Amino acid sequence: RTDSDRLWGSLMEMAKLGATPKGGVNRQALTDLDRHGRDLFIQWCRAEGCTIRIDNIGNIFARREGSDPTAKTVMAGSHLDSQPTGGKYDGCFGVLSGLEVIRTLNQHKITTQAPIEVVAWTNEEGCRFPPCMMGSGVFSGVLEFDAMMARSDAEGVTVSDALDAIHYRGNDEVSPSEIKTYFEPHIEQGPILEDTDTTIGVVIGGLGQKWFDLTLTGLEAHAGPTPMHLRRDAMMGAAEVTQALNRIANAHQPHGRGTVGCMTLHPGSRNVIPGQVKMTLDMRHWEPEALIAMGQSVATAVEEICQRHGLEYELTPTADFAPEHFNKMCVDTVRQAAEQLQLSHMDIISGAGHDAMFIGRVAPAAMIFIPCKDGISHNEIESAKPEHVHAGCNVLLHAMLDAAGI
Amino acid sequence: RTDSDRLWGSLMEMAKLGATPKGGVNRQALTDLDRHGRDLFIQWCRAEGCTIRIDNIGNIFARREGSDPTAKTVMAGSHLDSQPTGGKYDGCFGVLSGLEVIRTLNQHKITTQAPIEVVAWTNEEGCRFPPCMMGSGVFSGVLEFDAMMARSDAEGVTVSDALDAIHYRGNDEVSPSEIKTYFEPHIEQGPILEDTDTTIGVVIGGLGQKWFDLTLTGLEAHAGPTPMHLRRDAMMGAAEVTQALNRIANAHQPHGRGTVGCMTLHPGSRNVIPGQVKMTLDMRHWEPEALIAMGQSVATAVEEICQRHGLEYELTPTADFAPEHFNKMCVDTVRQAAEQLQLSHMDIISGAGHDAMFIGRVAPAAMIFIPCKDGISHNEIESAKPEHVHAGCNVLLHAMLDAAGI
Ligand SMILES: NC(=O)NCCC(=O)O
Ligand SMILES: NC(=O)NCCC(=O)O
């Protein structure tokens, strides 16, 4: 059994870095606070005798050797970066559960056959630099390294510059072929486990995603003398696109999702018809054909809306990931671990993207979900119960021991 | 006749202060650039022998004495502040036409019976600090001085602090009762004069305005795992309010206007359902009852939309001005001046708010419009022809001489 107080203590310690007034965390990818979080994680891993590797996109691998020098690694991990108004558990729960497994093995002087490795992936959230799961995407070859280095945030800072600024561009070569199995514990970020009073979600896969940046360009003009029928109001276009996206997502239930998270109006003056609006679109679905159909419907809607309002537009994909089905054997390992521990469990599909979804393309992978309060995450009020955190970490311990052998 | 090159030269000189790359001007109220504009105007007026008065909200009055010491003032003016992406003519044309009248009278050594006064009103645009026409509003008693001093910009700077920072809080007491007549030349900012190939718009009045700040509060949550039907998406509310405002304005044609100029999403992350949206609403109409009805319809729509999406809201009025009908005699003076000068002219209603609309409540007032290119203003591409600028200034000269007597 893992030590629930030790894990909880580390979670609370990490949450101090970027703590927000409302009890959340703002520790966005490749910021100075992200650096502090990484430093702390490495310090904790070194204290457990781990060797550290850092790859070219800043993914951190902390390794505890096994008894069999030819064995592949049993890996666990997640991410340390957060949303601008994120919570304490999203990401950190997975990384620090992996560390807690190592601490428990050390404490009980258990040597596994296969090495155990804990990983913190770079920029999982994707809010500062799209797309999400950037570090695991580059690691697994789904995302192209050079293209990701050139991605920039709203201020124009590139991933490449930000990585250098925090001194986390490594040169260790870590290959997906080293991985035997990858497990990722995470809070559910949705309401299902809580609603059904279930402790463990056995994640069978995750929704595919399509993200777009959309720029609508009309003509900025005076809000008073410009007659309604002569306007080319970019905000009218943006309002209709928002509704179209919502309608399309609703037409693809139960798995469809559609969200406009960012919108900027130019010039942004009360008595000026906006000449330009920049906005983001986030679409998700479990069935590949449905996700493609949603993307096409949105593109058609944008075209029609812009024509009607006399707007020009640019619709740029920033993320495009197919739905992921996890490896059956890995999923079974998680289910069995929950059963061994006599924890209530259910199979579940992840609505959020996770690093495991990219690792799953190049190695056997699965995830362990625990409930979070009201299903809320990406919010400072995100909360999880100590007993659930403890249960999830124990499932990880059992699954890793099962995969690594003693 | 006024000197068209001299007026044009001063307009271009003033436009250098806050000049934007696309040929426009960003010289927002009570900024350091506004101070430079004010300093330049005062310097030019002093060079013409004018005495300067500055009142408690920073309105600048430049006076040329008349021969009758008991006579009231014939005043002309407008504003020197601009939109964030404004043009060279909006406001400056009126102020510098007034100055050009004084220069012309000086050049020809003409003494009027009544004194002539040119005024630059503080914060006409209202984009940094709502409402618009703040300086003339306080001067005419329509807006309350203390309340206006406490208004703040998006960064939380108050009018009071900004006024002190640029050293333009005066202590001259200038009273509306000093005014015999007030004339304000301005670009039309709409398409009518250009469309009908008319040089002079004889402005009979202006649309009333209702401005609101609207905050919609829902629940920020993850864009992936949060099912559509469980969302409290503030952006969905904002999109529907935008469309409702548009629909309501369209239902009140030909005079109804509805514009959403500003919108800010919190937290503003691509994969987060916005928990809060702050937006501005701008509504206008020529008939008082219609404007009131529009305001009520919008309030009802906001209530209904928020209920449907599970949102809370705060709808705060930031401006509320009835439509203004200018003094018939003053309007006739403008029309006669245009006729004397054999300029094509037509009666017109202003869609924009103007200082003259507040001054008109406490003294006889009227306005002189000239065409602007494509009816576009509040845009860096705003443009006016030298011959129209010259014609408008000449109408002002004739109207002022008519009102002041020689
Ligand atoms: N788990 C998580 O919050 N991932 C962020 C990427 C996403 O938007 O799904
Ligand atoms: N004339 C002008 O642009 N005034 C600004 C106030 C308004 O929005 O009408």
Structure description:
The structure is a homodimer of 406-residue chains. With 406 residues, chain A is of the alpha+beta class. The longest helix of chain A is centred in the C-terminal third of the chain and has 22 residues, at 288-309. Chain A is built from twelve helices and 16 strands. In chain A, helix 1 crosses helix 3 and helix 8 runs antiparallel to helix 9. Helix content of chain A is 35%, strand content 23%. The mean pLDDT of chain A is 97. In chain A, the strands form three sheets. In chain A, strands 1, 2, 3, 4, 5, 6, 14, 15 and 16 form a nine-stranded mixed beta sheet that branches. In chain A, strands 7, 9, 10, 12 and 13 form a five-stranded antiparallel beta sheet that branches. Chains A and B meet through strand 8, helix 8, strand 9, strand 10 and strand 11 of A and strand 8, helix 8, strand 9, strand 10 and strand 11 of B. One N-(aminocarbonyl)-beta-alanine sits between chains B (90, 124-126, 132, 189, 352-354) and A (222-224, 271).
